[in-house]
Amino acid sequence: MIQIFTKYITRYLCNYFGIEERYIISESAGKFEILIPKSSIDITDIQNRIDNYFRKNFYGINGIVLSKVQCIREDFLDENRYRKLREQLCLIK
User: Fold this and answer.
1) Which candidate, 85, 56, 55, places its Cα nearest to that of 68?
2) 35-89 pLDDT, tens per residue?
3) What are phi and psi for residue 69, nearest 5 degrees?
4) Helix/strand/coil for 35
5) Which of 2, 4, 31, 36 has the fewest CB atoms below 10 angstroms from its CB?
6) Do residues 6 and 31 lie in contact, with contact meaning Cβ atoms separated by under 8 Å?
């Protein structure tokens, strides 16, 4: 069931931000990464939409928390830079 929600949410986010599904880097075990090729995005509205959906349909028992971090192409070309990028995401609350 988690994989179905993860796949749905990633496609929903791509649609919301007007990007192609090829920007989905990974989606497994309830986690996902999407590259959004925009210099600045606001995730507040989409987080609220997702929260409202889960409150309405699952009484808030389940949910998804979105986070974002800015990156550049080189962050994905160097293993150490990519590791630091991932660590940044882990620190976001």
Assistant:
1) 85
2) 999 878 999 999 999 999 999 998 878 888 999 989 998 998 999 999 998 888 8
3) -150, 140
4) coil
5) 4
6) yes
